[in-house]
Amino acid sequence: MSRIELDLAHSYRASPKEDADYALLPLKMTFENGGAYALLGPSGCGKTTMLNIMSGLLVPSHGTVRFDGQDMTRATPQQRNIAQVFQFPVIYDTMTVAQNLAFPLKNRQVPAAQIKARVGQIAEMLEMSHQLDMRAAGLSADQKQKISLGRGLVRPDVSAVLFDEPLTVIDPHLKWQLRRKLKQIHRELKLTLIYVTHDQVEALTFAEQVVVMTRGKVVQMGTPEALFERPAHRFVGHFIGSPGMNFVPATVAAGQVSAGGYALGALGAADGGLTLGIRPEYLAIVPPGEAGSLPARVQQVQDIGTYVLVSLDTAGQSLKARLSPDAAAPRVGDTVGAQVLNTHTCCYNPNEELMA
Amino acid sequence: MQLTLSGISKRVGAEAWLYEMSLAPQPGAVTVLLGATQAGKTSLMRIMAGLDVPSSGRVSVDGVEVTGMPVRERNVAMVYQQFINYPSMTVYDNIASPLKLGGRPAAEVDRQVRALAAKLHIDIFLQRLPAELSGGQQQRVALARALAKNAPLMLLDEPLVNLDYKLREELREELTQLFAAGDSTVVYATTEPAEALLLGGYTAVMDAGELLQYGPTAEVFHTPMSIRVARAFSDPPMNLLAADAANGGVQLRGGPLLPAQLPAQATLALTIGVRASALRVQPRPGDVALPGTVELAEISGSDTFVHVHCGVGEVVAQLTGVHNFELGAAITLHVSPAQVYVFDAQGDLLSAPRRSGSAA
Lengths: 356, 360
Prior knowledge:
The complex is a heterodimer.
Chain A: E1 4-10, E2 24-31, E3 36-40, H1 47-55, E4 62-67, E5 70-71, H2 77-80, E6 82-85, H3 97-106, H4 112-125, H5 141-153, E7 160-164, H6 172-189, E8 193-197, H7 200-206, E9 209-214, E10 217-222, H8 224-229, H9 234-239, E11 246-253, E12 256-259, E13 262-266, E14 272-278, E15 284-286, E16 294-303, E17 308-314, E18 317-323, E19 335-339, E20 346-348
Parallel strand pairs in A: 3-8, 3-9, 6-7, 7-8
Antiparallel strand pairs in A: 1-2, 1-4, 4-5, 9-10, 11-12, 11-14, 12-13, 14-20, 15-19, 16-17, 16-19, 17-18
Helix pairs in contact in A: 3-4, 3-5
Chain B: E1 3-12, E2 15-23, E3 30-34, H1 41-49, E4 56-61, E5 64-65, E6 76-79, H2 91-101, H3 106-119, H4 135-149, E7 153-157, H5 165-181, E8 185-190, H6 193-199, E9 202-207, E10 210-216, H7 217-222, H8 227-232, E11 239-246, E12 249-252, E13 257-259, E14 269-274, E15 288-299, E16 303-310, E17 313-320, E18 330-335, E19 341-343, E20 349-351
């Protein structure tokens, strides 16, 4: 296992001039030995480019990739000793489950007794022990993807295991089980795992550290809690959470913040314009006219099963509030107060960055 | 438009793809077909569209039988998982094609294309070719074309599945508004319980070729008539605990007694269903306690999913907000006996929680 350090940029163009020419803007980051990481962002954000640079499928146009301090920028995936799991099952249909799992070890001339022990251990973790002698061809897509995961995890000596959207083809229920398995396996095997996805739930539940990317740029690397509570960039506030953070343009004058002419309360920020960010979970619905609230009209009230989602309109701007099913929900057409300033509110500067 | 499926089934060779079922989706509303892959959603939609003929039963539209009538003679719009557009036509012409077929005046076609493109936020791409757009934009073009057709029946087969999570959220909201504004009968297939809840309307739960339950979406979610429906319509999965009928309530195997009034037809062996969100770490008066140890805690941002090993089995609790737990730490979960589902030995619902929320 290795500590992976990236200090690089990548452009698919010969002589990049502006930001838009880069698939990955200059970045510097470290993946610690034994950590569980997720690379999260919409398609086209550069997450797969970053994964391919780490695995050795792609050489960055600028900078270096280091494994435990050693320059590996031009090393092949084999030299880097990387295991990979892809979106779709990559297995041998004619082999049994056990043979499939053993294959990466056999290839490296691991002694038979060790292979048997490790295959047994992985199969047990993935709850496939009873299927070891079955031919892979007869298994469902879900089961085949489990074998792929097992093949990725079977070698104890890999530098890192890279996953590229491995649960895309899996039904929601099995996803729960597999996510949990991956977490347990990470704890038991202490492998460095790097997981690429566009699905925030997968990323946040899997990883200790999540790298959020957009347009070739890393906008935040942090714990799931940090990404939720203190998004470093408006993009993170919007992308994490379902629905994402609400944003309200506001003005500060003499330590008091107001929005659309309504006084919201005291705020320790310099005079001028800023944007308040408040998560639907923290936006409070209060009686209309209550001090520090914005007048709002209830547009929609949805029962989402485990919570109630309320859509509000305030001066042409839409806000969302998430209420507990026990709370008294307002009715469509009601006029209410939207309280957007409290201890959870984040302030963003005109560059969309979190203000201290 | 009233689409009615009466006693339809579909067999392919010796295999039953759809078991006999009847379904009359609410006219002018959205009906969600919810079920895992292989549940039969696509097979059912193909019969609705007239792409396939059922092995038995009848399909009728506003009382007129259309079983076996090919799709081109019916007025149906379809959107598939894969974006299907005419690759050599511009976005404008793609959207305009069903309108031109309708023989409308050019000015009217132009107005409609622009209005639809604006609604789906693709108006700036009208002169581009589909290949020059991202996946999400291409799917918007396919959706715009389906909407342009303004067919009384619109079938969407997992239309958002190939899109990014965030994009899916955005488009789903736009679609919900477009469906509400139009008067088409919409049938929308998905594997995701959360998507069904967000779309609202009505939901038909399917599993392994069977139609299990049909009704208003929130009602089906809150009152699943069987364990199979509860399982298909819960994410995170509903916790299912083995129990027995006892004096004064339900005795959880390896756990406490839940005070309850069981109906007369209750079997001795029971299954208790507890939604992950009904479990709490703070007790309230009248709660029963489920002590255990933390196996895993997953933080999703707004919620923490705690997997707990209890005397009654493995359970998952969904707690609002961020909570940190040491693995292996002792934890006690609390649940109100009024918040549990009771299923009989056959898996049929005996009682469901009272609903306190006022949301409609």
